[in-house]
Design a protein that fits this description.
Alpha-Beta Plaits; Rossmann fold; 3 domains; 5-stranded parallel β-sheet; binds flavin-adenine dinucleotide; 7-stranded parallel β-sheet; 396 residues; alpha/beta
């Protein structure tokens, strides 16, 4: 990985580099020039230096992996709630840590966090590091990045796990860049080697291959993980501790002022639904989607679709399950006229109960279904809807 280095023996402290740096990333001590973590490698200082004392160099040395210990989970906290992906990250984080004898920690940023920190301990966390300050009440990429950088510098975790949420996707690249290390986004599987190298597996090239990515020469190892892919950590008797860290003015210094927050209408999401009914290409006409939707609503569930239906313009992309859509893990999923291609199945096969309706008894979906119904969806669904709306009571 490249970095900017100053040859202070050749520097006459003219200050041209400091003047030209747009990121305040260059500091002058009594007799040296230092590049700090805010450097974005724009190279303007290299061009500005009249004595060629600033150079870009490739770091070839491997990191000492023994100096970096523990798994740090970012506990995403927003509007008084912890995002549920956090409990999944703790689940996988604890599993990975146990395999190599490391501890699992959480980073919690926000305001008035005491009860939330206590709650996190009940998921078997060793230490919850808390940055509790009114200035951190709302998420802001730059202040949260500063705070994140602070814990990484002091804790030196081997692995950092962040949810693939809007906030996580905004934060993780910034923090990993500051830490001069790699980031694997959107992981669906994580394993660990005995030398603490994290094997980060994710779909690549539009879902055509599953890539295995390793950060061999740098620490920490940063991964964002898709929601609803990992199992939640179980609740246990708490044994860990809470550590409150100082929040400095430098951490909260920002050029962004949040004037007001306008809440978006919370549209029902297939990721959060307990029950999903999926329409595939066995549905012959766009108007027939109403039948699938009626069935979903009869079960208090949501309609989801396969990719071809989105491509035909029959449904919105937000309802697509699959490698190029969403990953789901509901309590019940019923697929109607879905063949079960790998790009679809890989993102729903962890669902608790899978029921498949398909006319073709050799369809791959039956390999992962717990209950398979070989038949025509146009015959099966109307009678099922009638039954559900009639005398049956369903509580899921
Ligand atoms: C890079 C890449 C990424 C992809 N990403 C995704 C993705 O994210 N999501 C996704 O879904 N796909 C994705 N695909 C496409 C995927 O490979 C499949 O083509 C797709 O999932 C098939 O959708 P389907 O099951 O609806 O259709 P089909 O494969 O055509 O299956 C239709 C099924 O309906 C059955 N059927 C027909 N009539 C009836 C009836 N009356 N009653 C009951 N059953 C009936 C048939 O027997 C058949 O099994 C991707 C492909 C690639 C190459």
């Amino acid at each position: 990985m490249a970095s900017i280095r100053v040859d202070n023996s050749n520097c006459d402290l003219c200050g041209d580099c400091i003047a030209v740096c747009p990121f305040d990333a260059i500091e002058q001590t009594e007799d040296t020039i230092q590049i700090n973590a805010a450097c974005k490698m724009c190279n303007l200082c290299i061009e500005a230096c009249p004595r060629s004392a600033i150079q870009i160099t490739q770091d070839t040395q491997s990191v000492n992996k023994d100096e970096w210990r523990g798994v740090l989970v970012f506990a995403e906290y927003f509007e008084g709630k912890v995002h549920p992906v956090t409990f999944e990250l703790i689940g996988i984080g604890k599993k990975l840590a146990a395999q190599v004898g490391m501890k699992t920690h959480c980073l919690l940023i926000g305001y008035n966090l005491e009860s939330t920190a206590q709650m996190l301990l009940t998921y078997g966390i060793d230490t919850v590091f808390v940055y509790d300050d009114e200035r951190l009440l709302r998420f802001s990429a730059d202040t949260y990045t500063n705070v994140f950088e602070d814990i990484i510098t002091t804790l030196k975790p081997s692995i950092v796990l962040v949810g693939s949420t809007s906030i996580g996707r905004s934060l993780a690249p910034r923090v990993s860049t500051r830490s001069r290390t790699g980031l694997t986004a959107d992981c669906t599987t994580l394993t660990i080697k005995q030398n603490t190298d994290l094997v980060q597996i994710r779909p690549a090239f539009g879902g055509n291959i599953m890539a295995q990515i390793i950060t061999e020469n740098h620490r920490p190892q940063f991964a964002t993980v898709r929601y609803k892919v990992m199992d939640c950590a179980p609740v246990v008797a708490p044994f860990g501790s809470i550590e409150y860290a100082d929040v400095t003015d430098k951490m909260t210094d920002t050029k962004i002022e949040v004037l007001r927050v306008i809440a978006k209408d919370a549209a029902p999401s297939i990721t959060d639904a307990d029950v999903l009914v999926v329409a595939g290409q066995g549905v012959k006409d766009k108007s027939d989607l109403a039948l699938i939707e009626d069935f979903a609503h009869a079960l208090n569930g949501e309609l989801a679709v396969t990719r071809p239906l989105v491509e035909k313009g029959w449904s919105d992309y937000t309802r697509q399950i699959g490698l190029s859509g969403r990953t789901v893990k509901p309590k019940l999923i019923i697929t109607c006229g879905v063949s079960g291609a790998i790009q679809f199945a890989a993102c729903m096969n962890a669902s608790e109960i899978i029921i498949a309706i398909n006319t073709d008894k050799t369809a791959p979906i039956f390999k992962i279904a717990h209950i398979g119904i070989v038949g025509d969806l146009y015959e099966i669904l109307p009678s099922l809807i009638e039954k559900i709306q009639g005398d049956c009571e369903y509580a899921i």
